[in-house]
Specification:
It contains 14 helices and 15 strands. By secondary structure, it is of the alpha+beta class. The strands form 4 sheets. Strands 1-2-5-4-3 form a 5-stranded mixed β-sheet, with helices on both faces. Strands 6, 7, 8, 9 and 11 form a 5-stranded antiparallel β-sheet that branches. A 3-stranded antiparallel β-sheet has the order 10-15-12.
Length: 536
């Protein structure tokens, strides 16, 4: 049995193996996943391999150039290389058509991240014909360089290790490599280390991969796959699936999927973290480790899903009260769908897309506009997207949790007008069921100060490169959604049917008010629509 080949963390719930019915159900599930395009073709795999080979050549030449510039001898210049290591869904073996590739670049001790990676290498890539949509994000928690290379989206992160020459066979699981690293570099290295450790800790890698493909597909269809928006990213979903694999080490993928929703519909968050192994501390290295037993700040995390390699971290640090509520609701809906599947429905019942624009009557609409073309909009939009979870948290705070927010993890683009491009994010609004409301909270919700604070937060952006960056926040009803949103939801643009339920609604629109920005440019007003919201 698979459980005998690898050590397990904790006691499994069941050691039962698959039945013939489980094998048949797994075959049906895999067929559905293939029909959904979740497996790439051999031709697409070959393109990815070519991209990685070409990138390896670019970063090798980059390191040799820097080694020469630093005045090192010719023998060292000849030996100088960088190590290029994919991680994330690609290294876990669960990537599909159109998936991006997360890649770690490991360089020698004298090649730094701030200048050599984000300035010199960015310049090299900008002049590479195969590279488009190049966007450095040095201010991210794990600093990243985003690009499209031969049509493949690539996210590059960088780690400089304490070695004058980086060997091709460098063992990144060696904990000594972490000595003397800053936290951002340690997080960058941990991407590879976590993926490798997950595969080591699951009892059956094949079953794990199929179950994870299924759960990721479900999470995207249900709108809860986005670390940036405050939901869960790929690493978190992988850890959750891996934990279920440990609890049912001999189960077929179809059984793992149904048990996934059963287990996590009952999980005791925030008191019980999800872990694949024991938390380790290393007094010599002294890196910060997530451990709610010793760190009071870690006890405030709402949905702890802990990475398995040292230093252990919480992969769901962006989850808020609002997004945790949505995640729990969707897991419960997934559990109900799996119960229906067990009674004879096909697997398609699990993957029904969540109808976000039918779930609410009212929304906060966040419009991001830039008069500099689509490349500029992509950068500006990425920054605003990274702040949206703060808007959700501020609304929760300022309404004492009575006004419920449901952020949509995707943006909708309007048709460009010349060089002016606009993209819109949406946050669904609803109120608590009447029996849960406090009597004093049955009046209006005044979010004007909340919107102003959010605007100031967004305009603290440090990397201004474009002349006209605008942001507007407004309250809209479902019937007043922009035509470009309706056309993308339903091609004929017809208005969505109303759905009765508790919701936040608006009083008459208020006039926009200006908000501070780093650039004094009167021709580019930064405005936010203010609204008072009435629960309907």
């Amino acid at each position: 049995m698979a459980s005998q080949s690898k050590p397990l963390f904790g006691e499994p719930i069941s050691l039962a193996g698959p039945t013939p019915a489980d094998h048949e159900s797994t075959a049906q599930l895999e067929k559905l996943l293939r029909e959904a395009g979740l497996y790439e073709s051999p031709e697409e795999s070959a393109v990815r391999e070519e991209v990685l080979r070409d990138l390896q050549g670019i970063v090798d030449r980059w390191v040799k150039h820097l080694t020469f510039q630093h005045g090192y001898p010719d023998t060292m210049v000849n030996e100088a290389t960088a190590l290029l290591v994919p991680f994330g869904s690609y290294s876990l073996g669960v990537h599909g058509r159109g998936s991006d590739i997360d890649v770690l670049v490991v360089g020698p001790s004298y090649v730094d991240r701030d200048h050599d990676f984000f300035v010199v290498l960015t310049g090299v890539l900008a002049e590479t014909e195969a590279v488009t949509h190049l966007r450095p994000v040095p201010g991210a928690r794990a600093p990243v360089m985003k690009m499209t290379f031969r049509g493949v989206q690539v996210d590059l992160v960088y780690a400089s290790v304490g070695l004058p020459v980086v060997p091709r066979d460098l063992d990144l699981s060696d904990r000594s490599l972490l000595r003397g690293l800053d936290h951002a570099t340690a997080r960058s290295l941990n991407g590879v280390r976590v993926a490798d450790e997950i595969l080591r800790l699951v009892p059956d890698a094949g079953a794990f991969r199929t179950a994870l493909r299924c759960v990721k597909h479900w999470a995207k269809e249900r709108g809860v796959y986005s670390n940036v928006a405050g939901f869960l990213g790929g690493v978190s979903w992988a850890i959750l699936v891996a934990r279920v694999c440990q609890l049912y080490p001999n189960a077929a993928p179809s059984m793992l999927v149904s048990r996934f929703f059963m287990v996590f519909s009952q999980w005791k968050w925030p008191t019980t973290p999800v872990m694949l192994c024991d938390i380790e501390h290393d007094a010599e290295l002294g890196l910060p480790v997530w451990d709610a037993r010793t760190n009071p700040r870690d006890r405030s995390h709402l949905m702890a899903v802990i990475t398995p390699s040292y230093p252990c971290m919480n992969s769901t640090y962006n989850v808020s009260q609002a997004t945790l509520r949505v995640i729990k609701e969707q897991i419960m809906a997934g559990h109900a769908a799996c119960q229906e599947i067990a009674c004879g429905r096909d697997w398609g019942a699990l993957f029904q897309p969540f109808q976000f624009f039918r779930a609410h009557k009212s929304y906060l609409q966040v419009d991001v506009t830039l008069a500099g073309g689509e490349d500029g909009l992509r950068e500006w939009k990425g920054w605003v997207e990274s702040r949206l979870r703060h808007l959700v948290a501020k609304v929760y705070r300022d309404t004492s949790g009575e006004l419920l927010c449901h952020p949509h993890p995707h943006a909708y683009n309007a048709e460009p007008r010349g060089l002016q491009c606009t993209s819109s994010f949406f946050v669904g609004l609803s109120t608590k069921p009447q029996q849960q409301q406090q009597p004093r909270q049955r009046g209006q919700f005044d979010l004007r100060a909340t919107m102003d604070e959010f605007m100031q937060d967004v305009y603290a952006y440090e990397f201004w490169r474009w002349p006209c960056l605008e942001l507007a926040v407004s309250h809209v009803r479902r019937k007043d959604l922009p035509s470009y949103v309706l056309q993308q939801i339903r091609p004929n643009g017809h208005e969505l049917k109303r759905k009765h339920g508790n919701d936040g609604s608006s009083s008459s629109p208020s006039s926009p008010s200006s908000s501070p920005s780093p650039a004094d440019d009167d021709s580019c007003p930064r405005s936010s629509s203010r609204a008072k919201l009435n629960p309907s």
